[in-house]
Amino acid sequence: MIAGLHLAAPLAGFAAALAQAWRATSLAEVVSVGLGIAYLFQAVGRSRWCWVTGGISSAILVYLSFRQQLPMQALLNVYYVAVSVYGWWTWSAAQAHRPAVTLLPLRWHLAGCAAVVVASAVTAQWFGRGAEDAWPWLDSLTTWGSLFATWLTARAKLENWAYWLVIDGTLAFLFFEQRLYLWSFASLLTLVAVVLGQRAWMQARRDQAPAAVLRA
Question: What are the distances in angstroms from CA 56 to CA 18, 28, 63, 86?
Fold first, then answer.
Protein backbone atom coordinates (compact mmCIF):
# COMPACT_ATOMS: atom_id res chain seq x y z
CA MET A 1 0.00 0.00 0.00
CA ILE A 2 2.79 2.41 0.95
CA ALA A 3 4.75 1.44 -2.17
CA GLY A 4 1.68 2.22 -4.24
CA LEU A 5 1.44 5.67 -2.69
CA HIS A 6 5.11 6.29 -3.43
CA LEU A 7 4.51 5.43 -7.11
CA ALA A 8 1.27 7.37 -7.44
CA ALA A 9 2.82 10.79 -6.81
CA PRO A 10 5.52 10.59 -9.54
CA LEU A 11 3.00 9.16 -12.02
CA ALA A 12 0.54 11.93 -11.28
CA GLY A 13 3.29 14.51 -11.72
CA PHE A 14 4.32 12.97 -15.03
CA ALA A 15 0.72 12.95 -16.27
CA ALA A 16 0.34 16.61 -15.27
CA ALA A 17 3.55 17.49 -17.11
CA LEU A 18 2.30 15.74 -20.25
CA ALA A 19 -1.02 17.57 -20.07
CA GLN A 20 0.75 20.90 -19.65
CA ALA A 21 3.06 20.08 -22.57
CA TRP A 22 0.11 19.29 -24.81
CA ARG A 23 -1.61 22.58 -23.91
CA ALA A 24 1.61 24.43 -24.75
CA THR A 25 1.87 22.79 -28.17
CA SER A 26 1.01 25.12 -31.03
CA LEU A 27 -0.98 24.21 -34.12
CA ALA A 28 2.10 24.96 -36.23
CA GLU A 29 4.08 22.35 -34.31
CA VAL A 30 1.31 19.77 -34.71
CA VAL A 31 1.17 20.29 -38.48
CA SER A 32 4.95 20.27 -38.80
CA VAL A 33 5.25 17.06 -36.80
CA GLY A 34 2.50 15.34 -38.78
CA LEU A 35 4.14 16.21 -42.08
CA GLY A 36 7.55 15.24 -40.71
CA ILE A 37 6.30 11.77 -39.77
CA ALA A 38 4.66 11.40 -43.19
CA TYR A 39 8.01 12.32 -44.79
CA LEU A 40 9.83 9.61 -42.89
CA PHE A 41 7.56 6.77 -43.88
CA GLN A 42 7.43 7.99 -47.47
CA ALA A 43 11.25 8.01 -47.47
CA VAL A 44 11.28 4.42 -46.19
CA GLY A 45 9.31 3.47 -49.30
CA ARG A 46 11.56 5.68 -51.46
CA SER A 47 8.60 7.76 -52.66
CA ARG A 48 9.58 11.07 -54.26
CA TRP A 49 6.58 12.71 -52.50
CA CYS A 50 8.53 12.56 -49.26
CA TRP A 51 10.37 15.69 -50.43
CA VAL A 52 7.11 17.64 -50.73
CA THR A 53 5.82 16.81 -47.24
CA GLY A 54 9.31 17.14 -45.77
CA GLY A 55 9.86 20.54 -47.37
CA ILE A 56 6.63 21.97 -45.97
CA SER A 57 7.36 20.52 -42.52
CA SER A 58 10.83 22.10 -42.53
CA ALA A 59 9.49 25.50 -43.59
CA ILE A 60 7.28 25.53 -40.49
CA LEU A 61 10.13 24.37 -38.26
CA VAL A 62 12.28 27.31 -39.39
CA TYR A 63 9.90 29.62 -37.53
CA LEU A 64 9.57 27.32 -34.50
CA SER A 65 13.34 26.94 -34.09
CA PHE A 66 13.99 30.67 -34.18
CA ARG A 67 11.26 31.21 -31.61
CA GLN A 68 12.81 28.63 -29.25
CA GLN A 69 16.37 30.02 -29.52
CA LEU A 70 17.79 27.25 -31.71
CA PRO A 71 19.28 29.30 -34.57
CA MET A 72 21.31 26.43 -36.04
CA GLN A 73 18.19 24.27 -36.21
CA ALA A 74 16.43 27.11 -38.00
CA LEU A 75 19.25 27.39 -40.55
CA LEU A 76 19.24 23.62 -40.90
CA ASN A 77 15.60 23.65 -41.88
CA VAL A 78 16.23 26.36 -44.46
CA TYR A 79 18.68 23.88 -45.97
CA TYR A 80 16.05 21.13 -45.72
CA VAL A 81 13.65 23.21 -47.80
CA ALA A 82 16.34 23.70 -50.46
CA VAL A 83 17.42 20.05 -50.48
CA SER A 84 13.77 18.99 -50.78
CA VAL A 85 13.73 20.61 -54.21
CA TYR A 86 16.98 18.80 -55.10
CA GLY A 87 15.67 15.50 -53.73
CA TRP A 88 12.42 15.78 -55.70
CA TRP A 89 14.37 16.47 -58.89
CA THR A 90 16.88 13.65 -58.29
CA TRP A 91 14.33 11.00 -57.35
CA SER A 92 11.98 12.05 -60.17
CA ALA A 93 14.78 11.38 -62.64
CA ALA A 94 15.10 7.79 -61.36
CA GLN A 95 13.30 4.98 -63.12
CA ALA A 96 9.77 4.56 -61.66
CA HIS A 97 10.67 7.43 -59.26
CA ARG A 98 12.49 4.99 -56.96
CA PRO A 99 16.26 5.61 -56.93
CA ALA A 100 18.73 2.74 -56.66
CA VAL A 101 20.17 2.29 -53.15
CA THR A 102 23.96 2.58 -53.16
CA LEU A 103 26.86 2.81 -50.70
CA LEU A 104 29.20 5.71 -50.02
CA PRO A 105 32.98 5.01 -50.04
CA LEU A 106 34.60 5.00 -46.59
CA ARG A 107 36.86 7.96 -47.41
CA TRP A 108 33.79 10.13 -47.97
CA HIS A 109 32.35 9.10 -44.60
CA LEU A 110 35.61 10.05 -42.89
CA ALA A 111 35.76 13.36 -44.73
CA GLY A 112 32.10 14.08 -43.97
CA CYS A 113 32.43 13.33 -40.25
CA ALA A 114 35.59 15.44 -39.99
CA ALA A 115 33.84 18.34 -41.70
CA VAL A 116 30.89 18.02 -39.30
CA VAL A 117 33.15 18.20 -36.23
CA VAL A 118 35.17 21.15 -37.53
CA ALA A 119 32.10 23.12 -38.60
CA SER A 120 30.40 22.35 -35.28
CA ALA A 121 33.38 23.64 -33.32
CA VAL A 122 33.27 26.93 -35.22
CA THR A 123 29.52 27.52 -34.94
CA ALA A 124 29.32 26.35 -31.32
CA GLN A 125 32.03 28.84 -30.41
CA TRP A 126 30.27 31.61 -32.31
CA PHE A 127 26.74 31.06 -31.00
CA GLY A 128 27.95 30.10 -27.54
CA ARG A 129 29.25 33.60 -26.87
CA GLY A 130 25.80 34.96 -26.15
CA ALA A 131 22.41 33.78 -25.01
CA GLU A 132 20.99 33.31 -28.50
CA ASP A 133 21.73 29.57 -28.49
CA ALA A 134 20.68 27.50 -25.46
CA TRP A 135 22.69 24.40 -26.48
CA PRO A 136 25.49 25.53 -28.83
CA TRP A 137 27.37 22.22 -29.14
CA LEU A 138 24.38 19.89 -29.50
CA ASP A 139 22.63 22.39 -31.75
CA SER A 140 25.71 22.61 -33.98
CA LEU A 141 26.53 18.89 -34.11
CA THR A 142 22.98 17.87 -34.94
CA THR A 143 22.73 20.63 -37.53
CA TRP A 144 25.90 19.83 -39.45
CA GLY A 145 25.35 16.10 -39.01
CA SER A 146 21.87 16.47 -40.44
CA LEU A 147 23.22 18.36 -43.44
CA PHE A 148 25.46 15.42 -44.24
CA ALA A 149 22.78 12.80 -43.53
CA THR A 150 20.20 14.63 -45.65
CA TRP A 151 22.60 14.71 -48.58
CA LEU A 152 23.10 10.96 -48.15
CA THR A 153 19.32 10.49 -48.20
CA ALA A 154 18.91 12.59 -51.35
CA ARG A 155 21.62 10.48 -52.99
CA ALA A 156 19.87 7.28 -51.79
CA LYS A 157 22.89 6.12 -49.79
CA LEU A 158 22.11 3.23 -47.43
CA GLU A 159 24.24 4.59 -44.61
CA ASN A 160 22.03 7.64 -44.08
CA TRP A 161 19.91 5.64 -41.61
CA ALA A 162 22.85 5.04 -39.26
CA TYR A 163 23.50 8.77 -39.05
CA TRP A 164 19.83 9.52 -38.40
CA LEU A 165 19.79 7.03 -35.52
CA VAL A 166 22.34 9.14 -33.62
CA ILE A 167 21.02 12.52 -34.75
CA ASP A 168 17.35 11.89 -33.95
CA GLY A 169 18.16 10.42 -30.56
CA THR A 170 20.08 13.59 -29.71
CA LEU A 171 17.36 15.84 -31.12
CA ALA A 172 14.75 14.12 -28.94
CA PHE A 173 16.66 15.38 -25.89
CA LEU A 174 17.37 18.82 -27.39
CA PHE A 175 13.75 19.51 -28.37
CA PHE A 176 12.49 18.29 -24.98
CA GLU A 177 14.82 20.65 -23.14
CA GLN A 178 13.56 23.56 -25.27
CA ARG A 179 9.90 22.59 -24.63
CA LEU A 180 9.18 21.49 -28.17
CA TYR A 181 7.59 18.41 -26.68
CA LEU A 182 5.77 17.19 -29.75
CA TRP A 183 8.91 17.38 -31.84
CA SER A 184 10.78 15.57 -29.07
CA PHE A 185 8.24 12.75 -29.23
CA ALA A 186 8.40 12.77 -33.03
CA SER A 187 12.20 12.43 -32.88
CA LEU A 188 11.79 9.33 -30.73
CA LEU A 189 9.19 7.99 -33.13
CA THR A 190 11.56 8.48 -36.03
CA LEU A 191 13.91 5.97 -34.45
CA VAL A 192 11.32 3.33 -35.35
CA ALA A 193 11.23 4.64 -38.92
CA VAL A 194 15.04 4.56 -39.00
CA VAL A 195 15.07 0.84 -38.19
CA LEU A 196 12.35 0.16 -40.77
CA GLY A 197 14.16 2.29 -43.34
CA GLN A 198 17.45 0.49 -42.80
CA ARG A 199 15.79 -2.89 -43.31
CA ALA A 200 13.74 -1.78 -46.33
CA TRP A 201 16.68 -0.14 -48.10
CA MET A 202 18.95 -3.11 -47.42
CA GLN A 203 16.36 -5.39 -48.98
CA ALA A 204 15.95 -3.03 -51.93
CA ARG A 205 19.69 -3.05 -52.49
CA ARG A 206 19.77 -6.86 -52.47
CA ASP A 207 16.94 -6.94 -55.00
CA GLN A 208 18.59 -4.52 -57.40
CA ALA A 209 20.46 -5.52 -60.53
CA PRO A 210 24.26 -5.70 -60.01
CA ALA A 211 24.80 -2.69 -62.28
CA ALA A 212 22.50 -0.53 -60.19
CA VAL A 213 24.10 -1.63 -56.92
CA LEU A 214 27.58 -0.71 -58.08
CA ARG A 215 26.55 2.69 -59.38
CA ALA A 216 28.23 5.46 -57.40
Answer: 27, 11, 12, 14
